[in-house]
Design goal:
This protein is 0% helix and 57% strand. It is mostly beta strands and 302 residues long.
Length: 302
């Protein structure tokens, strides 16, 4: 099947940045339910990448959706890029990959659906925090979105984004799972999709307000290859976490479960500070991407 792309201009209004992008309209989404591993394998593609060809998008103008066949909780994720044979594709090609639950609203950005997963690089693993997960129900529409950009200089005839979602099925799994709300606090404001990074160090700050009373048992972080550090503070002056990427690309995590989590009150304000470092001599287009994931357990209203 020939690759057909619809050219578009993507306005990153929050930062005044415009980036060319093309929708890979021939891409499809195949999902395989694997009961032996309690997982769903999402495989989106193929995407043809040519050096300097610009950003290729999946699932934006042409939705790539899957209907959940079971109820329970999403508890862990594993992301990678692969070719048609299933062999892993190396290289820094991924700009963004996400799974959205169309039946639930994002608590911090009500104009967009709740995201079960978000990443700005691959390969990447978000491990399970035992006893908590993100709720899914039979019939939920799960939408995949992705963006790739060939900055390595090599041509790739067909790249697939593979995202494995591990689940615990309600009524069949012996381990009870509390329903957490995924709060993705991004470096940019709601709706922003990244911004240009000039050479050198760049720092961005964003403040958000806690939507409800509850607790946060764990944090995780994801960022582009230029993300160096993420800090989250409870204002006015309490440092909650300082997450730094290691040289080996280790995924930053914070586990507060042993102490019962960190309580938060509705209306409290939090500041996220993101540090990037572009060591190249040229500006990197739409490469300023990072987010903290807060596993949020709201208190029951009595």
């Amino acid at each position: 099947m020939p690759l057909r792309a619809l050219c578009a201009s993507v306005c990153l209004c929050a930062f005044g940045v415009t980036a060319r992008a093309a929708e890979t309209k021939s891409a499809t989404l195949h999902v395989k339910l694997e009961e032996a591993t309690s997982s769903l394998l999402f495989r989106a593609g193929p995407v043809k990448l040519a050096a300097g060809g610009g950003v290729q998008r999946l699932g934006f103008s042409a939705p790539l959706e899957y209907t959940m066949p079971l109820s329970g909780a999403a508890v862990a994720f594993r992301l990678r890029l692969a070719d048609a044979s299933g062999a892993e594709v190396s290289g820094r090609l991924l700009l963004h990959a996400s799974l959205e639950n169309q039946g639930r609203k994002d608590l911090l950005c009500p104009g967009r659906p709740e995201r079960l997963f978000l990443a700005y690089s691959a390969p990447l693993t978000l491990p399970e925090f035992p006893g908590i997960g993100f709720p899914v129900e039979v019939g939920d529409k799960i939408r995949f979105r992705g963006e790739l950009d060939d900055r390595a200089g090599d041509d790739y005839p067909g790249v697939y984004v593979e995202l494995r979602m591990y689940y615990r099925e309600r009524g069949k799994d012996k381990l009870p799972v509390a329903s957490a709300i995924p709060l993705w606090i991004e470096a940019g404001e709601c709706g922003a999709e990244g911004y240009d990074l000039p050479p050198g160090r760049e720092v961005k700050r964003r403040e958000v307000q806690a939507p409800r009373n509850g607790k946060i048992p764990a944090l995780a972080a994801t960022g582009s290859e230029y993300a160096v550090r993420l800090l989250i503070e409870r204002l006015p002056s309490e440092m909650l976490a300082d997450l730094a990427w290691q040289a080996d690309g280790a995924f930053p995590l914070v586990n507060w479960m042993p102490r019962g989590g960190t309580d938060i009150d509705a209306g409290q304000r939090f500041r996220v500070t993101t540090e990037f470092n572009n060591g190249a001599a040229a500006t990197r287009r739409a490469a300023g991407r990072a987010a903290i994931l807060a596993y949020f357990l709201p208190f029951e209203v009595k």
